Amino acid sequence: MHIEILTLLLQLFALLSLAKILAEIAQRFNLPIVVGEIFAGIILGPSLLGNFQFYREYFLPDSNSINYIDVFVLIGSMLLLFIAGLQTDIKLLKHYSRNAIVITIFSFAVSFLFTFSLLQFIAPLIFSGFEKSSLLSLFVSSTLAISAISVVAKVLIDLNFIRRDFGQLAVAIGMIDETIIWIIISVLLGFVSATEFSVNRILYSTIKVIGFIALGTIIGKILISRFIILTQNILKLKYKFISLTFLTIFLFGLIAQFLNLEPVLGAFIAGLIFSQIPGLLDDTIDKIESLTFSVFAPIFFASAGLKVDIRDFADFNILILSLLITIFASFGKAIGAYLSARFISKFNHWLALSLSISLNTRGTIQIIIATIGLATGIISQEIFSAIIIASVISSLSAPIMMKLVIKKIEPSEEEIFRLKKEETFQKSILSKINRVLVPVRLRSDFDVTNIKTIETKLLEKINSKKPLMVTLLTVVSENEKMIAQNFLNNLQSKLETLKVDKRIIVSEKPLESILNNLKTGYDLLVVGATEKVNTNDSVINPFIDHLIKLAPCYSLIISSSVKYQNKNLNKILVPVDGSLASKRAAELAFSFSDPEKDEVHLLRVIERKSNNEQLIPDLTMLDRQYEYAKAILDSIKEIGESFQIRTFTRIEVGESPENVILRAANEYEFDLVVIGTEIKPGTEKLYLGPRVERILNNCSCPVAVFNSQ
């Protein structure tokens, strides 16, 4: 065991260090870093350093011993596919599904026919002793007719193309490719032990793969989303989401392996599931990506180079056969992809050419399948070497060619707009909001039929843009628990468009209970300030006062009354003063606005001093203030336009900004005023600022105060 551990540590150190060094060199020469990582494996493998006896004994274990590095390779491939699934846009996949299916079928079929013809009809004529085998030809042709989605995804990520339309289309084709190959391989492996072709066996293999993808995605989404809620509410561990993510990856990999599929397929499905579930923190994703691309991915690609033995080229027949297989498979894939993309899907020349090159990327999936074929006796050692060489050649050449051609793809106006919108969204405050806590007080006089409060309307509008995980929380005494359960069930039944979780806490300390729940990872606290008190001119009651002051997350205070419950929130006013708080308030307004129905008005008030303070107006100063105000409004208006929201700007001058805002809200009949503020704890009551408090008390429409500090 001592030797095995020593060998493993030596392999990890050598592979990772040399892979990073050569990746750095490749990047400096403007090459994909995958090229450098694969070359690291070639240098450390049997091709070069493996020729030295002492090195080979400690670094390259023989085929009869356990190679523990394969565990790291497996984890690396699963993490790469998980990230590829995580960055896959389901809506874009559906949008391009027709084109993806057409290009996949044509590119696979042409490549398959080219390679099958070579092995079945041409190779026996060229190479003496080459035994023609239909099973072998089917196996090799199918193996080399597909794309290695892990390599494609890595190159697209390196080139920052994974979110482009081209990147999503390439990933979709790669996903369909791998679905096809696992169906075919499952059938072919069945033929090894079977004496004849069986339609039932083909149907079983097909249903198994497609069923795993479909059911895994649908059922997995339901179960994982509920498990995330459970984890968030119960566990207080620091890295609980990272643990949950890895558990999901391993679970789906386990299921795939149990079904005699490949664990990487399960990892990809896990990524697809998480891409559709709100609540996975950006920090968690960043940590997983950092670990993958800094450690596991370099080891994964370097290990592919380890399997290459240049000495196989010494056999002239293997050399020629490998080159012919590579040429026939690649040429067929390129022709099928280009013609179908260019003339059936009507893509332009550069997009079709880029697809024909990117889909010729082969790698670990071919190595995995070739290993299966060798172990089951379908292929010989010579054919195995030919597949490995063909895979490595395409893995090295395709990324280089991709980088040269992919830059020629001109994005459409629709794609530019989508990318700009995504970039704006990622920078906006909404991208940081996934979990929302809504504390509700148990009320016997509450009319459930009139549940559509301003708070719920706002949450429903935000949820239409980005799925939220909303928790209704109530704190009651022990004898009120059953009543509270019915109360929350009634509330949930009326909030059909929201994904709602219910929590009932039995406690005599409601403030402490709510704050403890907020610490479990909530991003936004939503409270109503409808029950005002008149003590010391307080705008909201003391309980809400303390809750907002101590909340560890963003908060949204809604001030409204019953007469506004049926009001549509289509016309929104956002006062802007140049602060970060007001900008984030505008972002929030844009995020829940409907491009077809709503409009957002940005108001900048230039404060004019009273005549006692300034007898002669400074026109130069006023002009400068106008220019500054216009610049502020224009910059925020661009954000609104990126969300496709009708955005209007207005500059007004007044001695009292709050009076101007109140007059505008009443005169132009706004449905909602959204104010951004930095809430600071006061000595006795919540300090919103006298101007904000005056607006809350006197506004003719509902007011939402958003604290993003």
UniProtKB/TrEMBL annotation:
<keyword id="KW-0915">Sodium</keyword>
<dbReference type="Pfam" id="PF00999">
    <property type="entry name" value="Na_H_Exchanger"/>
</dbReference>
<feature type="transmembrane region" description="Helical">
    <location>
        <begin position="318"/>
        <end position="339"/>
    </location>
</feature>
<dbReference type="GO" id="GO:0016020">
    <property type="term" value="C:membrane"/>
</dbReference>
<protein>
    <submittedName>
        <fullName>Kef-type K+ transport system, membrane component</fullName>
    </submittedName>
</protein>
<dbReference type="InterPro" id="IPR006016">
    <property type="entry name" value="UspA"/>
</dbReference>
<comment type="similarity">
    <text>Belongs to the universal stress protein A family.</text>
</comment>
<feature type="transmembrane region" description="Helical">
    <location>
        <begin position="66"/>
        <end position="88"/>
    </location>
</feature>
<keyword id="KW-0812">Transmembrane</keyword>
<keyword id="KW-0050">Antiport</keyword>
<dbReference type="InterPro" id="IPR006015">
    <property type="entry name" value="Universal_stress_UspA"/>
</dbReference>
<dbReference type="GO" id="GO:0006814">
    <property type="term" value="P:sodium ion transport"/>
</dbReference>
<feature type="transmembrane region" description="Helical">
    <location>
        <begin position="265"/>
        <end position="281"/>
    </location>
</feature>
<feature type="domain" description="Cation/H+ exchanger transmembrane">
    <location>
        <begin position="16"/>
        <end position="406"/>
    </location>
</feature>
<dbReference type="Pfam" id="PF00582">
    <property type="entry name" value="Usp"/>
</dbReference>
<dbReference type="InterPro" id="IPR038770">
    <property type="entry name" value="Na+/solute_symporter_sf"/>
</dbReference>
<keyword id="KW-0813">Transport</keyword>
<feature type="transmembrane region" description="Helical">
    <location>
        <begin position="100"/>
        <end position="123"/>
    </location>
</feature>
<dbReference type="InterPro" id="IPR006153">
    <property type="entry name" value="Cation/H_exchanger_TM"/>
</dbReference>
<feature type="transmembrane region" description="Helical">
    <location>
        <begin position="209"/>
        <end position="229"/>
    </location>
</feature>
<feature type="transmembrane region" description="Helical">
    <location>
        <begin position="383"/>
        <end position="402"/>
    </location>
</feature>
<feature type="domain" description="UspA">
    <location>
        <begin position="570"/>
        <end position="706"/>
    </location>
</feature>
<dbReference type="GO" id="GO:1902600">
    <property type="term" value="P:proton transmembrane transport"/>
</dbReference>
<feature type="transmembrane region" description="Helical">
    <location>
        <begin position="135"/>
        <end position="157"/>
    </location>
</feature>
<dbReference type="GO" id="GO:0015297">
    <property type="term" value="F:antiporter activity"/>
</dbReference>
<keyword id="KW-1133">Transmembrane helix</keyword>
<feature type="transmembrane region" description="Helical">
    <location>
        <begin position="241"/>
        <end position="259"/>
    </location>
</feature>
<keyword id="KW-0739">Sodium transport</keyword>
<keyword id="KW-0406">Ion transport</keyword>
<keyword id="KW-0472">Membrane</keyword>
<feature type="transmembrane region" description="Helical">
    <location>
        <begin position="288"/>
        <end position="306"/>
    </location>
</feature>
<feature type="transmembrane region" description="Helical">
    <location>
        <begin position="169"/>
        <end position="189"/>
    </location>
</feature>
